[in-house]
User: Fold Alcohol dehydrogenase catalytic domain-containing protein from Herbidospora solisilvae.
Amino acid sequence: MKSALLYGHNDLRVEERPDPKAGEGQAVIRIHASGVCPSDIRSYTAATAAKRDPWTPGHEIAGVVTELGSGDTGDLQVGDRVAVDWRGVCGRCHQCVRGAANFCENLVKYPIAGFADATVMPVAQLTRLADGVSFEAASFAEPLACVVNAHRALPLPLAENVLVVGAGPIGLLHTQVARARGGRVIVTDMKADRLKAARELGAHDVAEVANQREAVLDLTDGRGADIVIVTVGIPAVIEAAFGLVAKNGAVNLFAGTHPKGAIALNPDVPHYDQVAINGSHDFIPNDFATALRLLRFGQVDVAPLISHRFPLAAVAEAFETTRQQRGLKSLVVAEGEK
Ligand SMILES: [Zn+2]
Ligand SMILES: [Zn+2]
Assistant:
């Protein structure tokens, strides 16, 4: 089979590799759709990329089971269409038991190696797709699960004001989940085409970042948004978010800072205005299941987020497209069923 291999800084090649074989409790999956994630780009551009052996990135995938190994493979069948969860959680540790499996103390990070024709995974990491959920849609289950994890911790009474800062692929997922939860959704971004996409995906109002403070105050009777979700990992953007939140509101920091950043926070905002600061990272297995249901029932539509499709042979171009922030989401797709 063909597989992408990251050799070092900005050096991604497609090479011939042995076909994967299913071991005990495992399945081989022929990959149909594989999303390029900003974390893939960080690996690709890292100066340290050359310091490890060549490896295959890609963790947002969906495909078809083509082989099952021996042992317990549940009710999975060859030919099943599946989404793949790279996070192997134990279900027994302190964090898993208290419902925070995103911090599983025995986490196995399965190297899905999704930019390839096929991969092998334990069957426990696979979820069968409902009819009507395409491979392309299912490849969004992982980032959407991260979004669901954030929302699980955010109070959102009906019709309260939610501000989503940043209308990239993640911001547009937040926009749709907030809308599905009954929020009144405002989205800000620098790019007009992204704001247009936000409107088409359910945002009630949009504003350019340059005048977002005036716009948000104007749209919220001078109070600010009850929930502010910051999808941009830039300290100045995060600082500005604290000027956009209402009293008794909450700010969710959804994006990490790369390189590591610091913000100046006026402690009187959380204190006198009783603003909650909430972060979120990764997801628990139920978030992954919820993400697939949101896709299945049409509460989240990812088709408009897919701006570029590349064959595996052009995976380096897919990475460059994402690195240069052209369009929204780039997918590497196989020929045949989408
Ligand atoms: Zn990802
Ligand atoms: Zn655990």
